[in-house]
């Protein structure tokens, strides 16, 4: 029974059974049991009442620890000592957060209760203390009766008085030389001799401000400036400013309305003339302040400087360009129109020998033309919009690559030399598929017998829309651009081994165009805002070209390989010299609307651009073998013939491989030859 009672008491007081309670805990238990503790009895015997001298207005001086930090008492049961040297014990705080919350809800004085750090007890603030705290928080004085704005009383009056404020005799030190000042002066003299202290320089007597309206004689401040121009004088008032102007200076009603409609800068007079019977009847001028202010602005804000005029002949400023007739041959007039497509013709390509022309249209067909006669030799329906078309540049192959939807179709048009046509079919039929086909980003499919009758030989399926197809100069590789996001936008196909590969691991924006370098193993990739040059053998980025245009639309490489031109949708044609810089060598802005296509001639120093304004601009672009001589760019001819359809003009441009002729396809459904 006693053990249970002891365990209960241990649980109530928060001590472990078997552990001796501390001194304050023991006193607390004795008081709970109704037995007075020895300390309480000593206090009563001496007549000491703990809170007898307590007052809420006086500072609590029971804790006499002095300047000892209270943090030192954190691990002890007491918080200090009173005046008699007895310990001041901390009050028991066994309440958890829930008890504190209930106390906050139930106790109406919870908001004005604070903890005394010196004793650890809770103290309730009186109304006067709460008012004092609020006054201090709002930035007021602590004393209510203090008036910060009471009139100041000067101790010294401004009147001359008979008696002095103090009549103390002067000190002896006031007329004996000071040794401290002597030491200071000697230090200053030494510092001046050593150059550590610089004496004050005499001020420049010339004025920093001067009179703008002063006479500009040669001896004045302004006259010393060699290039000074005096401030312009105001024009003297004329008859129109008179209070009684002649009748011819007064405006009629129509002239007054016309004057009000004009812009302020276009008016001959900046006021309306009025007539008054006498000078006394003239009111105050409404624009007086504004005119004075504008005059001051003219005087001190307008830079006036005398500049020597250079006598230059305007003809000397125009660059010396050769005459266009000295740069012939180049196409000058329209020779043939190839009609047959029922919708806009997006792309065209010329055979390597220049005898045949292939065109692709939105009407879902590819047409093959004879260049010399404009006769349609063959029409191949492909069942979709033809985005791009490219004739194989190898002279012993008769193949046309057509980009339709998500596939690239390889057509044998069966035109020209029969040996070349038969050799092409024989080359395609000799392929032996490997025993273990590798995983490829595109699938190669043989054409069915019905498709072979129409000329189709192979179908390369990609699963995503194809926007461009272009051949390498040797005719075995072709690059394809897909309208998709990610690193598989560009694929390279090998015809002889029927292999496909994705050359890039990451994407650098939406790819618009690609082109093979004609001489070296480079691949040019044009995104929306830049052109990147990749080395295919080393598999590394060689150069970045910055066209400084909003959206690149087309790309062409010079036959020598050292120059590149880009067309953009913001009507710019940018010429890059790869040996010179990654910035444009020249920017041509001859077109009014977006450029759709650019092309170089394979033999002649010509390049052309087609635009949505319906024009083809042919330029002479001579590239010299001397590296010290910059390319010569001269626009020589503007060719027109296509009619605008749906705000679209020329969609593709291609040069004849041997003749100075240019082909163009337009939104009006025609292909035109300019010779």
TrEMBL record:
<keyword id="KW-0539">Nucleus</keyword>
<comment type="subunit">
    <text>Component of the PeBoW complex, composed of BOP1, PES1 and WDR12. Within the PeBoW complex BOP1 interacts directly with PES1 and WDR12. The PeBoW complex also associates with the 66S pre-ribosome.</text>
</comment>
<comment type="function">
    <text>Component of the PeBoW complex, which is required for maturation of 28S and 5.8S ribosomal RNAs and formation of the 60S ribosome.</text>
</comment>
<dbReference type="Pfam" id="PF00400">
    <property type="entry name" value="WD40"/>
</dbReference>
<feature type="repeat" description="WD">
    <location>
        <begin position="338"/>
        <end position="379"/>
    </location>
</feature>
<dbReference type="InterPro" id="IPR015943">
    <property type="entry name" value="WD40/YVTN_repeat-like_dom_sf"/>
</dbReference>
<keyword id="KW-0690">Ribosome biogenesis</keyword>
<feature type="domain" description="BOP1 N-terminal">
    <location>
        <begin position="73"/>
        <end position="331"/>
    </location>
</feature>
<dbReference type="GO" id="GO:0000463">
    <property type="term" value="P:maturation of LSU-rRNA from tricistronic rRNA transcript (SSU-rRNA, 5.8S rRNA, LSU-rRNA)"/>
</dbReference>
<dbReference type="InterPro" id="IPR012953">
    <property type="entry name" value="BOP1_N_dom"/>
</dbReference>
<keyword id="KW-0677">Repeat</keyword>
<feature type="region of interest" description="Disordered">
    <location>
        <begin position="1"/>
        <end position="41"/>
    </location>
</feature>
<dbReference type="GO" id="GO:0070545">
    <property type="term" value="C:PeBoW complex"/>
</dbReference>
<dbReference type="InterPro" id="IPR001680">
    <property type="entry name" value="WD40_rpt"/>
</dbReference>
<dbReference type="Pfam" id="PF08145">
    <property type="entry name" value="BOP1NT"/>
</dbReference>
<keyword id="KW-0698">rRNA processing</keyword>
<protein>
    <recommendedName>
        <fullName>Ribosome biogenesis protein BOP1</fullName>
    </recommendedName>
</protein>
<dbReference type="GO" id="GO:0030687">
    <property type="term" value="C:preribosome, large subunit precursor"/>
</dbReference>
<feature type="compositionally biased region" description="Low complexity">
    <location>
        <begin position="1"/>
        <end position="16"/>
    </location>
</feature>
<dbReference type="GO" id="GO:0000466">
    <property type="term" value="P:maturation of 5.8S rRNA from tricistronic rRNA transcript (SSU-rRNA, 5.8S rRNA, LSU-rRNA)"/>
</dbReference>
<dbReference type="InterPro" id="IPR019775">
    <property type="entry name" value="WD40_repeat_CS"/>
</dbReference>
<dbReference type="InterPro" id="IPR028598">
    <property type="entry name" value="BOP1/Erb1"/>
</dbReference>
<dbReference type="GO" id="GO:0043021">
    <property type="term" value="F:ribonucleoprotein complex binding"/>
</dbReference>
<comment type="similarity">
    <text>Belongs to the WD repeat BOP1/ERB1 family.</text>
</comment>
<dbReference type="InterPro" id="IPR036322">
    <property type="entry name" value="WD40_repeat_dom_sf"/>
</dbReference>
<keyword id="KW-0853">WD repeat</keyword>
<dbReference type="GO" id="GO:0005654">
    <property type="term" value="C:nucleoplasm"/>
</dbReference>
